[in-house]
Design goal:
Blueprint: H1 7-11, E1 35-40, E2 52-58, H2 64-72, E3 90-94, E4 100-104, H3 115-131, E5 135-143, H4 150-162, E6 166-171, H5 178-192, E7 199-203, H6 212-223, H7 229-240
Parallel strand pairs: 2-4, 2-5, 5-6, 6-7
Antiparallel strand pairs: 1-3, 3-4
Helix pairs in contact: 6-7
The structure holds guanosine-5'-diphosphate and magnesium ion.
């Protein structure tokens, strides 16, 4: 057919739809400006409790550092630890300014950690969660293949009772088939329902960046960033599909 038109134009009957650019700009720019500010091993050393903070919690090896890297588009911002359970500190990342921060909490559930280290972890993390006024929400990561360990459930219940909003990531969903992932998600929603509306759950993959728009939409809401167009769509899609 010699119509002198590109395939796309003829497909849309000569009218071009809006540019697809939005696909590449779904994340608020602040996440890409993230920088590491400090690691803190004692409550007394926490940075000023102002602005808004979002913490990432979960078992060692669940993928906290990988998720922070995926979110910020920085490959090695939060060091991806090869020795899980060793980093007993809270790592702070500033976004566009010092009043918007991500916090990588020390992981738990590592089998070979001495009881003294576990106690220290509990004192540090609980002390932080209890006292931190700028903490707007907790992103709780679980490995989708081994979700809801006792420690995960404890932390989730603890946050709910403390009135802390949580966003549950079933990470490493690239390791499961779609059907298996969907079943874990449905089960997780059932478990979360009694905990209240402030607790949502989604599938996620840090390595494939699956679910990043949905996570971005929740973080935008927590940080008070205006929703990106793509995120608004992800949200609409999510609720249509019964997200959370
Ligand atoms: N397949 C897969 N592997 C992941 C994913 N997220 C993290 N990992 C891997 O899991 C391991 C632990 O990740 P890391 O971010 O260090 O976990 P952290 O201890 O919670 O900070 C690393 O080998 C990561 O490459 C994911 O979404 N999919
Ligand atoms: Mg880590």
């Amino acid at each position: 057919m010699a119509q002198g038109n590109s395939g796309i134009e003829s497909h849309f009957g000569g009218r071009r739809p809006a540019p697809l650019q939005v696909i590449f700009t779904t994340m608020h720019g602040a996440y890409r400006q993230a920088s590491f500010t400090m690691g803190v091993a004692r409550l007394a050393a926490l940075p000023a409790d102002v602005g808004v903070e979002v913490a990432f919690a979960g078992r060692s090896n669940a993928g906290k550092s990988s998720v922070i890297n995926a979110l910020t588009g920085r490959t090695a911002l939060a060091r991806i630890s090869k020795t899980p359970g060793r980093t007993q500190q809270l790592n702070f990342f500033e976004l566009d300014d010092e009043e918007h921060r991500l916090v990588d909490l020390p992981g738990y559930g590592y089998a070979n950690v001495p009881i003294a280290v576990k106690r220290r972890w509990a004192a540090l993390v609980e002390g932080y969660l209890v006292s931190r006024r700028s903490l707007r929400g907790v992103v709780l990561l679980m490995d989708v293949r081994r979700p809801f360990t006792d420690a995960d459930s404890q932390l989730l219940d603890w946050c709910a009772h403390a009135g802390l909003a949580t966003h549950l990531l079933l990470n490493k969903c690239d390791k499961l088939s779609r059907g298996a992932g969907a079943r874990v998600l449905a089960d997780a929603r059932k478990r979360l329902a009694p905990l209240g509306e402030e607790n949502l759950v989604q599938l996620f993959s840090a390595t494939r960046k699956i679910g990043i728009d949905e996570l971005g939409a929740r973080l935008d809401a927590w940080f008070g960033y205006p929703p990106a167009e793509g995120n608004a769509r992800a949200k609409a899609r999510g609720s249509a599909a019964g997200s959370g």
